[in-house]
Amino acid sequence: MKKILIIIAVLLIPFAALADKPVWVTVDGTSYQSEMDTLKEVKDRAKRDAESKAVERAVGTFIKSHTLVSNSQIAEDLIYAAVRGKITNEEIIASDWDAKDRNLYRISIKALIEPVYPEKGAGLSAKLSLSKTDLKEGDEVKIFYQVSEDSYVYIFSIAADGSVTLLLPNSNMPDNFTRAGRAYQFPPADITIHLKAMFLPNHKEASVEEKIKIVATRQKEELLSIGFKEGIFQVFDAKSTGMISDLVRRLNQIELTDWTETTAVYNLKR
């Protein structure tokens, strides 16, 4: 019976993008034999080491084959999909004790890794709504949100040109801790921050669709590390690739059940 080994990674792409694209990878696994180990235990450890490396390498290939080059990708979806790698076929190419270290066992395998996309049904969840979804330029909008467990909430505004503004946390409100089950609004009523719908300079169309995105994590995370300040907010222009790299790297290190995301869409008309 074939073993199935799973590892989690994070991609900022829709599920269908990687469908039916398994990859073959060739890797080496190793294991040291102690005085207490049986030969079978050593061989099994080496094989598990190789399988783990195979899945990690395959997931890295999935990510690289869909490299995101601009924040316009985020403007289109900003859908976080957890892709898992599953070994569906495996061949042992070679296995033997190391020529120089007779306590080191080596194995080389060729494995076929298939991407698997589990549903995000368990763990942390978030709700998001807006005071208005059909806006005219100059209209004020409020963001309402709630989380199922105590967590840290990050609110993003995604403009039509692909630029992304981190609304929360910000320089005036660095604390983004959110209590479970409590209804929150942004901006808070006691804070002199106002969110007004505005067309971007030189935008000629009569209407545009933009988005508000929430990411919630159980632990406080430094999801982003670059960008420039526009007033109290951190902004990432449409040409910046660093934001996506930061998000992928950080979310890739968080268990799937320890973070969540949701999106609200609004229409802006003249």
Give the end-to-end Cα distance, rounded to a whole number of Å.
63 Å
CATH topology value of the largest domain:
Immunoglobulin-like
Rg computed from alpha carbons, rounded to a whole number of angstroms: 23 Å
CATH class of the largest domain: Mainly Beta
The H/E string reads: EEHHEEEEEEEEEEEEHE
- Name the overall outline: elongated
- What structural category do the secondary elements indicate? alpha+beta
Strand content: 35-45%
Give the name of the CATH architecture of the largest domain.
Sandwich
The helix tally amounts to 3
- Helix content bin: 10-25%
Number of strands: 15
Mean pLDDT: 79
Number of domain modules: 2
Contiguous uncertain segments of 5+ residues: 1-19, 67-72, 75-81
Helix and strand topology:
Blueprint lengths: L7 E4 L11 E10 L6 H26 L7 H5 L4 E17 L6 E13 L9 E5 L3 E3 L6 E5 L3 E8 L5 E5 L8 E2 L5 E3 L20 E11 L10 E3 L2 E4 L5 H10 L7 E11 L1
Parallel strand pairs: 6-15
Antiparallel strand pairs: 1-3, 2-4, 3-4, 5-7, 7-11, 8-9, 8-10, 8-12, 9-14, 12-15, 13-14
